[in-house]
Specification:
Shape: globular
Radius of gyration: 20 Å
Number of domains: 2
Number of strands: 18
Strand content: 25-35%
Low-confidence stretches: 11-18, 89-94, 214-235
Strand order of the largest sheet: 7-6-16-15-12-13
Number of helices: 1
CATH class of the largest domain: Mainly Beta
Length: 241
């Protein structure tokens, strides 16, 4: 299992916002926080405390034995505070923004977005990794701007990026909530934090997925009797670089 956590260091001196670092954690689901606490603390210059680093999710201090990787709040995209609560500094409209994978091999995945640039791709180095062979290693970026708006840009991917059917280039374009972002065989949709959240449950890979069965697809419209009908086939995508 791989999940990406953001660790915020404690304030010092005249800092108004603690320093932060994105960390890719690779560990079996169910691993206790105590097994990785020292490593997480070290990423922001915290002292080696022998696994007793105090980590917070929001205002709550996490129990290093009871809280485990892959279950809330220790899921992909979580923000943790070292030695103090996580400051509530998210801009209006950006708090709780989520990227939902609504189609493709990772359909049902939910990724929490943090301010700044988020890279999407097939590589383990991507902030949002997708197990889609038609997605490039680093395919596109989604950026949460300081004012809360979200933008998307392509990274010269092999099969391209489209937003509601329109091609996206290297120049960032606005990504509005509800718009469909297509990369490879995957489709993603931005959900605002202000929208009523879907009931989510943890999977076994450190992500949150919508609870309950997926809605069934609407039936295709009936064809008039005696009318020949042939379905157009889409050309297969080229293998992604």
């Amino acid at each position: 299992m791989q999940i990406r956590l953001t660790v915020l260091g404690s304030r010092s001196g005249h800092q108004t916002v603690p320093a932060g670092c994105d960390v890719l954690v690779t560990a079996p689901a169910g691993t206790p926080l105590s097994a990785v606490a020292s490593g997480l603390a070290a990423t922001v210059g915290g002292p080696d405390t022998g696994g007793t680093a105090a980590l917070y999710a929001g205002e709550r201090r996490l129990d290093p034995q009871r809280h485990v990787l892959g279950e809330p709040p220790l899921v992909d995209g979580a923000v943790l505070g070292l030695h103090g609560p996580v400051p509530d500094a998210a801009p209006d409209g950006a708090e709780g923004a989520q990227l939902h994978v609504v189609a493709g091999p990772d359909a049902g995945g939910v990724h929490l977005l943090h301010p700044g640039m988020i890279r999407i791709g097939r590589s383990a180095d991507a902030d949002v990794p997708l197990d889609d062979p038609d997605v490039s290693r680093l395919h596109c970026t989604v950026t949460v701007l300081p004012d809360g708006r979200v933008a998307v840009a392509d990274l010269d991917s092999t099969n391209g990026t489209t937003l509601d059917g329109a091609e996206v280039g290297r120049r960032p374009v606005p990504l509005p909530p509800g718009a469909l972002l297509r990369i490879g065989e995957s489709t993603l949709r931005l959900a605002e934090g202000a929208a009523p959240p879907l009931p989510l449950v943890p999977d076994l890979e450190g992500h949150l997925r919508p609870a309950g069965p997926a809605p069934s697809a609407a039936p295709a419209p009936a064809q008039p009797c005696g009318t020949a009908h042939s379905a157009a086939r889409q050309a297969p995508a080229a293998p992604a670089a």
